[in-house]
Amino acid sequence: MGGWRGIAIVVALLTLLMGGLPQADKQQQRQQLQSQLQSLQGKMGALRSTINEKKQQERKVRRDIAELDAQIASVSKRLRQTRAELAYARKRQAELAKKLEVLTARLKRRAELLAQRLRSAYKYRSISVLTLISGARNLQELSSRSYALRQIVKTDRQLLDQVRADQQAVAEAKAEMDAVVRRISRLEANLRAEEQELKDAQQEKKETLEAISRERALYERQLAILEAESQAIARRLRALMETGAGRARADKRWSGRFIRPVSGRITSGYGMRVHPIFKVRRMHTGIDISAPHGTPIRAADDGVVVGAGYIRGYGNTVIIDHGGGVATLYAHCSAILVSEGQEVKRGQTIARVGSTGYATGPHLHFEVRINGDPVNPAEYGF
């Protein structure tokens, strides 16, 4: 911040020295201060680049955060759906496991019953035909006993086969459901990891945005310093009016009309606006006229150059005193073609259009000041 304090000191010295030094000393002091201001010009250019870079970074980070918000919302929705599917699959898995357990127990009981029946049938087969015949009262009873035994064994085999088929079907369904649960579980884990990764990236972007915002706050404070320097220009003009030559110019009557310093479209008028670089609402103390780089800038009226040099924010600047407390200011010039103390005529080329200082492109920032205070140039035909 030492560089900014140096600029403020320079402006203060300009204001003080204009009224208290002989003309030769004033000229020497101007040259010294001009040298100091020129040495700061490189720093001003670096600051302009930094401001534009931070503005672009902030826009990009905000876009990134918005995209991450949308991605997180999408992943969160998919995660909720997946968790619902997983809950249903696990419920179905538990139902099938229980059913398989019941069928397995039933199969075991059926198998035991069938084994018992088969053992009984084996015993019957081992009895001699004469014994089987003698045990029956008649041939019909013998036939009935034999048939009943065969039917029982047949039915048991059918039941056993059905239970085995049911068990196989349930086992296959459970195996399939187990695979579904594993797949959905993996999907859920992947979605949770993706969601966390996006949230981490979002938090990082928010921290980056906060850092950029803090830097922007610093630039806004620097802009406040710039506005203070604009007021210092007004004080400087008032001080010049109090000097001998200044009083003579103050006594001189202004012609009452201006010519347009450059031909071009007015891109920003006088009044409150959002600063094109700092993106904060501030007073615009003049008008901006668009023109190609290097376009000649003409004096709006006859007068004496009371300022010709680099001013922070304004860049290369010319200030002309037209008498009667009226002055004009020409800022962001690429080149200055006049010097302090020089008398100029209406329409004389005094500088060339540029983009020095806080500017987004080549244009002329033009101000009209009455007794040092900026007024709306529209009141004077612009």
Description:
The chain has 382 residues and is of the alpha+beta class. The chain folds into 2 domains: 1-242, Helix Hairpins (Orthogonal Bundle); 253-382, Distorted Sandwich (Glucose Permease (Domain IIA)). 63% of the residues lie in helices and 17% in strands. Strands 1, 4, 5, 6, 7, 8, 9, 10, 11 and 12 form a 10-stranded antiparallel β-sheet that branches. α2 (23-126) runs antiparallel to α4 (139-242). The radius of gyration is 48 Å and the shape is rod-shaped.
Q: Topology of this structure?
A:
Blueprint: H1 2-20, H2 23-126, H3 129-135, H4 139-242, H5 244-251, E1 266-268, E2 271-274, E3 281-284, E4 287-290, E5 296-298, E6 303-311, E7 315-323, E8 326-336, E9 343-344, E10 349-353, E11 363-370, E12 373-375
Antiparallel strand pairs: 1-4, 2-3, 4-11, 5-10, 6-7, 6-9, 7-8, 8-10, 8-11, 11-12
Helix pairs in contact: 1-2, 1-4, 2-4, 4-5
